[in-house]
Design brief:
alpha+beta, Creatine Amidinohydrolase, Chain A, domain 1, 6-stranded mixed sheet, globular
């Protein structure tokens, strides 16, 4: 049976551009081949978004081949053919006998492919930070003549500066995130089950916005009274009560790319403390966005926010945000004081200003933004207000 390819998120030329950037870094580090097993990096280089990384899989990038070779579980190979730009001959499915096998696993198939490609005695890059100790030792013992180089986060740093193609996809994701917030404001009401509200929100995130459907459902955190001092919990069995508060964080997803947003909802008049915190955070948000420009640092943005809310009588213990892109967070840059990462055009960040002050009191607001040649383009656009319902 012939498998037809599905629609590609990006043209082949875009993936070749990304691959060229990775190969340039490989050349700088003196390696002939790279084993990419971080699932977000695999998405970046191929377009593959299927959730199969719970078993071993890896993309082999060779300096001597135009296309990488993708080695993954046989039952997942059709997904790679559907989703990626790779030639079918470069998608290698390993047998089911390597699943649940205490002696061998899919990384043995990856190593076999390295040997078959004639790369067993070359410089070999590994994402050691994403490998178990046992797997790292397997590469060392089975490839004794290879010169192993740690390539952890190298691809992630390349991902940090987006192409115009990627920015267009993130704008689509941001519109979906906005739609999720607007739908939440429409359905949150006393007497509603939290689960029913979440059903409406996630349905909106799937349907999408502007004719572009969501292609996945990212984490949705629904923190309601009395749990508003928390940040990363789901909805509960509860019924929404009058005079309660809900802190909501969600993301729109397009082809693996996420744009995130946070907003706070008050059922009934908000307390004076909540209103004062909201005003302080909005002031800090504006100052932080005004600090964004090429050449400024992540730390500059965080410092601008922190000093502003301190003048309003508040502090924020957690960082002010992070690089965002494929599968939400990127591990390269944080909006925190002391982070000297220099901002560059087409970097994208989640300016995450959630502030959890006490065990039973917190507030959230955030935006996803892009660094431009002169400042910041805020991609999310839901009303920047404390929603009073």
């Amino acid at each position: 049976m012939t498998i037809s390819r599905g629609p590609q998120a990006f043209p082949r030329t875009e993936y070749l551009r990304r691959l060229a950037a990775v190969k340039l870094e490989m050349g700088h580090r003196g390696i002939d081949a790279l084993v990419v097993n971080n699932p977000r990096n695999i998405t970046y280089l191929t377009g593959y978004t299927a959730r199969s990384a719970y078993v071993p899989q890896a993309l082999l990038v060779s300096m001597h081949k135009e296309e990488p070779t993708f080695v993954l579980r046989l039952m997942d190979a059709p997904a790679a053919i559907h989703q990626t730009w790779l030639d079918r001959g470069n998608v290698i499915g390993y047998p089911e006998g390597l699943i649940g096998n205490s002696e061998m696993d899919g990384f043995d198939a990856v190593i076999d492919s390295i040997c078959e490609l004639g790369l067993a005695d070359r410089g070999l890059g590994l994402e050691f930070g994403d490998l178990s100790m046992r797997t790292a030792e397997k590469f060392k013992s089975r490839l004794p003549k290879a010169s192993l180089v740690d390539f952890t986060n190298a691809v992630a740093w390349i991902r940090t500066v987006k192409s115009d193609f990627e920015i267009s996809i993130m704008r689509e994701a941001a519109a979906i995130a906005d739609a999720g917030i607007i739908r939440a404001a429409e359905v949150i009401a006393p007497g509603m089950r939290e689960a029913d509200v979440m059903a409406e929100i996630t349905a909106t995130l799937a349907r999408g916005a502007n004719g572009k459907p969501g292609t996945d459902i990212a984490n949705v955190f629904f923190c309601s009274s009395p749990r508003i001092g928390t940040c990363h919990i789901r909805w509960s069995d509860d019924i929404i009560r009058p005079d309660s508060q809900i802190n909501l964080e969600l993301g729109g997803v397009r082809h693996g790319y996420v744009a995130a947003i946070m907003r706070t909802f008050s059922l009934g008049a908000p307390s004076d403390r909540l209103r004062r915190l909201h005003e302080a955070e909005l002031a800090g948000l504006e100052v932080a966005l005004g600090t964004v420009r090429p050449g400024a640092t992540c730390g500059d943005v965080a410092k601008a926010f922190n000093r502003t809310i301190e003048r309003h009588g508040f502090t924020k213990e957690s960082r002010c945000g992070y690089a965002i892109g494929i599968d939400w967070t990127e591990p390269t840059a944080s909006l925190r004081e002391g982070d000297m990462t220099e901002l560059k055009p087409n970097m994208t960040f989640h300016l995450m200003l959630g502030n959890w002050i006490d065990e039973d009191f917190g507030y959230v607001v955030s935006e996803t933004f892009r660094v431009t040649s002169s400042g910041a383009e805020v991609l999310t656009s839901a009303p920047r207000k404390l929603f009073e319902l």
